[in-house]
Design a protein that fits this description.
heterodimer; A: alpha+beta; OB fold (Dihydrolipoamide Acetyltransferase, E2P); 4 helices; about 35% helix; elongated; B: four-stranded antiparallel sheet; globular
C-alpha cells in the first residue's frame, strides 16, 4: 500500500511536521501578543501630561503623582472619595468608589488606574499605594524629576502641599 | 552554652560554607584533569559538611532573632520586642538578607540529598555524581559570595538600638511561615536537573538512564513550586484583601514562568526516560527552567522589575546578581551550544503516539511561557530603551494566554489515552467516548451559570480533563485487575491532571464573581447575589502589638443563616500602619468574602465595607494542592528495582539498534 510521502515517518518528515507545528504555535502566540499590545497596554501619565495630551476617553491610563495635602474628601454615607493628584504643575481631581489602600496618605505618592472624564476629572477603578511608607513609585519619582520639582541629590522629595503653592505662583506668572 | 551559637558563629559558619562550596565546585574537575579519582570522591563529604555549616549559620540567625539581638542590623530593622514569637522566627526569611540565606540553605540541602542518594541502585556512577555536586557547589558558592559581600544578614549595628523597627504588618501572617520556604524549595529544586543537564553536557552522554535520574528531582521541584505558587496566590487572596487570586504582577509571573517551563521539562523528561528521545530538548529545558527560577528569585530583587512585592531594591546588588545570573545561565547555554550537537538523537516518533502528544504539549507550554515572559519583560525594556512608562495587566494576559490554554486542556484529555510508539486513532476514540459523554452530561446544566462563552468553554474543557483522566485510570484498572499493579506514576499523572481541571473550574467560577462596596450603618441590610448581608455590630479589640476594630456581619440566604463574618481593621504600633483583616467563609460552592474598609465619623457612624461573592474560589487552591500531591505521588521509588531496570535497558538497546539514521 503506498502512502503519501508526508505521512511516511522518516526523520525528515517528522522534523518538518514538528517544525510546522512549532511555527504555527509560535506564530499564533506572536499574533496574540501583538494584538494584545495594540489594545491592552496601559500608559503611565503624570497630571501635566494628562492635561496636555488627553488620551481617548475610553482608554485606561495610570495616573501617578502625590496626593495634595488636605484634598481628600470622603462623601458622607457613601463609599465615594475624591482627592487631588499633582506633579507640582497641574492637579487633577480623582473620583474613586471603594476602599483606599492601607498605605494611602495625603502628601504621599499614589498611582490611580482609570479613565479621564470629559470634565477633566479622573475616574479611578483602582488606587495603588506602595507597601513601604518611604517608598515612592519609580514612575512618580521620574515624573517629579522631569517637572523639575525634585532633584534627588538634594534630599527627599518636598511635601506635596508646598508644591501646590509653587504651582499656584507659577500659574500666576504664566497665565 | 547557648551563647555559643551567636551571630559571629553564624557569620563564620556562612564563610566556612562558602569555602567548602567552592572546593566542592572545583575538586571534581581538578580530579578529572589530573586523573585523581580520590579528589572527585571528596565531593560527597564536602556537600554534606557544607550543608551542615549552612544549617548552623541559619540556626544562629534564627536564635539571634528569638533572643532579640538588635546588635544585628538585619534583626534591628525587621524585628521588634513586642512581635509574636512565630513572626520572630518566620520574619528571619521575610526580608532580603534572610531570604537569600534561606535560598542557599535549601540549595545545600538539595546538594546533600544528591550526595546521599543511593547511586548503586540507579546506575548513577560516582564520577557523574561528583560532576553534579561540583556544579551545585559552584552555584552555591557564587550565591554565598553574594550573601557575604553584598547582603550579609549578620552585619552588626553599633550602637545597638533598644528596640527594633518592627516588621511590615502585611507580612505578619501565619502563611508567611510556610510560603517562602516552600516556594524557594521549588525554585532551588530546579538546580538539580540543571546540574544533571550540565554534567551530561560535560560527559557527553545522555540516555534514558539519565532521564530516570533527572525525572524524580524535576517532579519534586515542580510539586514544591506548584505548592508554593498556590500558597502565594491564597496568601494574596486573604491578606491583601483585593478579592482576587492572581494579579499578573511581575513577581507572580516570575514564579509562573519557571513553573510553565518546568511543566514542559517534566513531560519531555518522560519521553527521554521511556523512549530515549527528545534528549537535547530535555537538556535545554532543564537549563531554561533553572535560569528562569534564578531570574524569578533575584531579578525581582535587583530593582529591574518594578513591583509591588519588591521589598529590597538596591542597584549595587543588582549588578552582582546580574553577573552571577549571566555566568550561570550564559555558561550553561554556551556549553549547550558547544556540546549539544554531539548528543545522539533518539528514535523516530510516529505521528499518532504518546510521544508526539507530549511534543505537542511542550510546544504549547513553551509558547505560553514565551507569552508570559514577553508580557513581563516588555514594560521594563520599553522603559529602558524608549523611556516610556507603561504597564500590561490582566486584559493583556487574558487575551494572550486563554487561546493557548484551551487547546492545551483539550490535548491533555487525549494525550493520556494514546499509547506509546503507535496509537490507533479508532481505539483511542473508543477509549475517550465515555469521557466525552460524561463531559457533555455535566457541562450542559452549567451553561446558565456562565456569563460568557469563553468561560463556559474553558469550564467544559476542564471537565473534559477531569473525566478523561478518571476514565483513563478506570480502563487501565480493568486491564490490570488490581490496584497495586498500576504504576504510581499513572496515579500521579491522573491526580495532577485532575488538579489542573479543578483549578481551571475554580478560575472559571471566579470569572462570575460579584462584589459591592457599601457605606453601612449598624443594622443595615445589603443584597448581593441572593444573599442578605447584615452589619450587626462593630467593637474594638486589643491584640499583642495592634488595636483592632472588628465588624460582625451576618450573612443569610432566604432567611436562613449562612455565616457570620468578622472582618477587622488593625492599627499597628511599630511601625505605625493599619491593615484590614479579611473575613472569609469558605464552602465547596464558593467564598463569602468581606473587607472592613474604614470608618466615617458621621452621626451615626458609617462603616465602609466591601462584600464579595466568589463562586468556586477554593477550588483554585484545592486544585493546586491536588496537582502537587499528584507530583509527590509519582515520585518514582520502585522504578529503580532491578527487574524493571533490566527491562528498560533492553528497550533502550532495541531503541538504539533501530536508530541507525544519522542524527541532527
Amino acid at each position: 500500500m503506498s502512502r503519501s510521502p508526508l505521512l511516511k515517518p522518516s526523520r525528515k518528515t517528522t522534523r518538518l511536521w514538528i517544525l510546522c507545528a512549532s511555527l504555527l504555535c509560535l506564530g499564533s502566540a506572536t499574533f496574540l501578543v501583538l494584538n494584545a499590545f495594540s489594545s491592552n497596554i496601559v500608559f503611565f501619565m503624570a497630571p501635566s501630561q494628562l492635561r496636555d495630551h488627553p488620551p481617548h476617553p475610553s482608554r485606561v491610563v495610570r495616573l501617578g503623582g502625590m496626593v495634595v495635602a488636605g484634598s481628600l474628601h470622603h462623601h458622607p454615607n457613601t463609599p465615594d472619595t475624591t482627592f487631588d493628584v499633582t506633579d507640582g504643575q497641574v492637579a487633577i481631581t480623582v473620583h474613586y468608589t471603594g476602599i483606599l489602600p492601607d498605605l494611602f496618605r495625603e502628601g504621599q505618592s499614589v498611582v490611580a488606574v482609570g479613565e479621564l472624564q470629559t470634565d477633566q476629572s479622573f475616574k479611578a477603578q483602582e488606587v495603588l499605594a506602595k507597601h513601604d511608607e518611604t517608598y515612592m513609585p519609580k514612575e512618580v519619582a521620574d515624573a517629579l524629576k522631569r517637572s523639575g520639582k525634585w532633584d534627588p541629590r538634594f534630599g527627599p522629595p518636598p511635601d506635596a502641599a508646598s508644591w501646590n503653592r509653587m504651582t499656584a505662583t507659577s500659574h500666576d506668572q504664566h497665565p | 552554652m547557648m551563647e555559643l551559637f551567636g551571630p559571629e558563629e553564624g557569620h563564620y559558619a556562612l564563610a566556612l560554607g562558602c569555602v567548602l562550596a567552592l572546593f566542592q565546585g572545583t575538586l571534581p574537575f581538578l580530579g578529572k584533569c589530573r586523573s585523581l579519582r580520590s579528589l572527585a570522591t571528596l565531593a560527597v563529604p564536602l556537600a554534606i559538611s557544607q550543608c551542615g555549616a549552612l544549617l548552623l549559620s541559619f540556626i544562629c540567625l534564627i536564635l539571634a532573632a528569638v533572643r532579640d539581638d538588635f546588635s544585628v542590623k538585619n534583626i534591628a530593622e525587621n524585628s521588634a520586642l513586642n512581635k509574636p514569637m512565630l513572626y520572630k522566627i518566620a520574619g528571619v526569611w521575610g526580608n532580603h538578607e534572610g531570604s537569600i540565606l534561606l535560598w542557599i540553605v535549601i540549595l545545600s540541602l538539595c546538594g546533600a540529598a544528591v550526595a546521599c542518594s543511593g547511586h548503586h541502585k540507579t546506575g548513577l556512577t560516582s564520577l557523574f555524581r561528583a560532576y553534579v555536586l561540583a556544579i551545585l557547589g559552584l552555584i552555591s558558592g557564587g550565591f554565598q559570595l553574594f550573601c557575604l559581600l553584598t547582603s550579609n544578614p549578620f552585619t552588626r549595628l553599633i550602637p545597638m538600638p533598644a528596640d527594633g523597627l518592627g516588621m511590615n504588618p502585611l507580612l505578619q501572617d501565619p502563611g508567611l511561615a510556610f510560603h517562602p520556604p516552600i516556594l524557594y524549595a521549588g525554585y532551588v529544586g530546579f538546580a538539580v536537573p540543571f546540574a544533571f543537564a550540565v554534567a551530561a553536557l560535560i560527559s557527553g552522554n545522555v540516555n534514558s538512564l539519565w532521564g530516570r535520574w533527572v525525572r524524580p528531582w524535576t517532579v519534586a521541584a515542580w510539586a514544591l513550586l506548584t505548592c508554593g505558587i498556590t500558597l502565594g496566590s491564597w496568601w494574596s487572596y486573604y491578606v491583601l484583601g483585593w478579592g482576587g487570586y492572581w494579579f499578573w504582577d511581575p513577581v507572580e509571573n516570575a514564579s509562573l514562568i519557571p513553573w510553565l517551563s518546568g511543566t514542559a521539562l517534566l513531560h519531555s523528561a518522560i519521553v527521554t526516560e521511556k523512549r530515549n528521545g527528545l534528549k537535547i530538548w530535555t537538556v535545554f529545558l532543564a537549563i531554561a527552567s533553572f535560569s528562569f527560577s534564578l531570574s524569578g528569585t533575584f531579578l525581582v530583587r535587583s530593582g529591574i522589575l518594578n513591583s509591588v512585592h519588591a521589598f529590597a531594591n538596591d542597584p549595587a546588588r543588582g549588578i552582582f546578581i546580574l553577573s552571577l545570573l549571566g555566568l550561570i545561565s550564559g555558561g550553561a547555554l554556551f556549553l549547550f551550544a558547544w556540546r549539544a550537537p554531539t548528543l545522539n538523537n533518539g528514535p523516530l516518533f510516529s505521528p499518532v503516539s504518546r510521544e508526539n502528544a507530549l511534543v505537542f504539549n511542550n510546544i504549547l507550554l513553551c509558547s505560553l511561557c514565551a507569552v508570559v515572559l514577553t508580557g513581563t519583560l516588555y514594560p521594563p525594556f520599553m522603559q529602558l530603551l524608549f523611556g516610556r512608562t507603561l504597564s500590561v495587566g490582566k486584559p493583556f494576559f487574558d487575551s494572550t494566554t486563554i487561546p493557548l490554554v484551551l487547546p492545551l486542556l483539550f490535548g491533555m484529555g487525549i494525550g493520556t489515552s494514546l499509547s506509546w510508539r503507535h496509537a490507533s486513532l479508532g481505539r483511542t476514540f473508543k477509549r475517550l467516548r465515555p469521557a466525552f459523554f460524561l463531559t457533555l452530561i455535566t457541562a450542559i446544566p452549567l451553561y446558565w451559570n456562565f456569563r460568557n462563552i469563553l468561560a463556559f468553554s474553558a469550564a467544559c474543557l476542564a471537565l473534559w480533563v477531569i473525566t478523561s483522566s478518571i476514565t483513563d485510570v478506570v480502563m487501565r484498572l480493568r486491564a490490570v485487575h488490581t490496584l497495586r499493579h498500576l504504576p504510581r506514576g499513572i496515579w500521579g499523572a491522573c491526580l495532577a491532571h485532575i488538579g489542573v481541571g479543578v483549578t481551571i473550574l475554580g478560575i472559571c467560577g471566579m470569572d462570575t464573581a460579584q462584589h459591592a462596596i457599601v457605606a453601612s450603618h449598624i443594622g443595615e441590610h445589603h443584597q448581593l447575589e441572593g444573599n442578605d448581608w447584615l452589619l450587626t455590630s462593630v467593637r474594638s479589640l486589643n491584640g499583642p502589638n495592634y488595636q483592632a476594630l472588628q465588624a460582625d456581619i451576618l450573612v443569610s440566604h432566604q432567611g436562613k443563616e449562612v455565616a457570620t463574618l468578622h472582618p477587622s481593621l488593625r492599627t499597628f504600633i511599630t511601625p505605625h500602619q493599619s491593615t484590614s483583616e479579611v473575613a472569609i467563609h469558605s464552602s465547596i460552592r464558593g467564598d463569602l468574602y468581606a473587607v472592613f474598609g474604614g470608618v466615617q465619623h458621621t452621626n451615626p457612624e458609617t462603616y465602609i465595607l466591601r462584600l464579595h461573592d466568589n463562586p468556586l474560589a477554593p477550588w483554585i487552591w484545592i486544585g493546586g494542592l491536588i496537582m502537587a500531591l499528584g507530583g509527590l505521588l509519582s515520585l518514582p521509588y520502585h522504578r529503580f528495582r532491578y527487574s524493571k531496570q533490566n527491562n528498560l535497558q533492553k528497550t533502550h538497546r532495541t531503541a538504539v539498534s533501530r536508530d541507525h539514521t544519522p542524527c541532527l
